[in-house]
Amino acid sequence: MYKRGKANVLAVSLALAMALGGCSGPGRAEPAARGKGEVKTTLTAASYSDPRTLNPWSSDARNLTRVALNVFQRLVDRNETDDGYVGVLAESWDETDDGITFHIRKGVKFHEGQELTAADVAFSLQKGSTYAGVNFGWDWIDFDNIEVKDDYTVYVPYKYPCYLTLAEFAANNMYIMCKETWDKYGEEVSLHPNGTGPFMLADWVQGDHLTLKRFDGYWGTASKLEEINYRFIAENSQAMIELETGGVDVVLDVLPLEVKNIEASEKMEMYYGKNIVIDFLHMNCQYEVFQDPKVRQAVAYAMDFEDIINGNYQGWGETPYSFITPSVAGYSSQFEGEHFPYGQKANVEKAKELLAEAGYPDGFDIEIIIDDDSNRIAVAEILRNNLEAVGIRAKISSSDYATFSEKIYSGEAKLYLNGVNANSMEPDSALYQRWHSSNIKDSGGSNYTRFSNEDFDRYLDEARGIPKLEDRYDNYAQAQAILMENVPSIGYFVRQAAAAKSPSLKGLRSYAGETWLADCYFE
């Protein structure tokens, strides 16, 4: 039972709080006294912001994903060792050109006690696909005609043959939810996240902390942790102090300026995962000034990528040379190094020349939309100065992530900073979802730049029908070249999949660009 008080507080009932041993301090679980040789079983993680919702389909924001990974599960996961796939809630599957049949694992329980059935799977795929945070161009799947064959068999038909299905089902937000729970709560399911994962919600005080407890009815191998406590600490410097003094065990958001201190400390160490996220400056191509590719190219030439990397990121990381990272299959190296058309330093004269050719010799006024992420705030200041040097007068507008997202979804944002995550580890999940014209919609679409190019669309459409991944590479290379020339977005930083942790914390790993805590333990 959850209550919303005057301070916007969500909390479990008194009986549950007593059963869990309570909580003391501002979002900080009081560790139980341990005798000599006892192993610590509560992990405390610092996250810069609250997830704001626990409906796992409603957003692809990392603040939600890092919690949802431990609460909900997918049908399949990507096998990190050989890039194949392993069954999770699906024990096995049979795929043809017409569709895919999933055989559901028997005996799986949701946190509230219901048994997972094919009906829950069919419902989740159909309902989840209506959310922009999940449905990234799945136009080959006929969600309306999914068939429940029996209690443990689901058939998902295709509109046309496509070889990306398992990759997309393994993406980090295609979760399975309990149909009964949704029928009972609807959108309020955010307060009742009834998943099948190894952890379940115990306590949530919005803006302060969120606590998960181990689910004793979990079908898989039980976690060595009893609790995961997320503390929401907006100031990274404060989070690092907490890590060094033992107040938290892992900091999930690391600023570049902290890396050297972490690596030099005996009380902290860095963890690195695969980099699959690029931070971009995006332009709304339906907005008048950005309809002309010359204006978008001018913005790219105005950017000082070297200053962004060295000034804000302290040289930690690199400028993206394409629209997906080298960790993602299909990455094209054609623009690396000296072949990067816009150069590492700003080319003011070239930018002014292009603006004049496009009819804006005196520049124009524009607003840079960002959320409250400290890195984006710092980058926006650098970009504002870059743009003003070529006559583009930029104003920075920041807000919380929910408000920021709404401005992007609605098309209100004309120039904004946001990441693109190839969370399926396939190029399609980034290139198709963010720039294919079929995803330009008034609502529910994921092409927020409203970019449209027939040749780009054709290369991606053709790739979907090519069975072998390596045979699709030329199509993806051509698609990346079109984006580089037309620049609806321009990447400025390959986001580091990294966290800072206590040396005693083991088992940390990343999945699809986010940190997974359920497998952690202490030594």
From TrEMBL:
Residues 1-29 form the signal peptide. SUPFAM superfamilies: Periplasmic binding protein-like II. GO terms for biological process: peptide transport. GO terms for molecular function: peptide transmembrane transporter activity. CDD domains: PBP2_NikA_DppA_OppA_like. Residues 85-441 form the Solute-binding protein family domain. GO terms for cellular component: ATP-binding cassette (ABC) transporter complex; periplasmic space. InterPro entries: Peptide/Ni-bd, SBP_5, SBP_5_dom. Keywords: Signal, Transport. Belongs to the bacterial solute-binding protein 5 family. This is Solute-binding protein family 5 domain-containing protein.
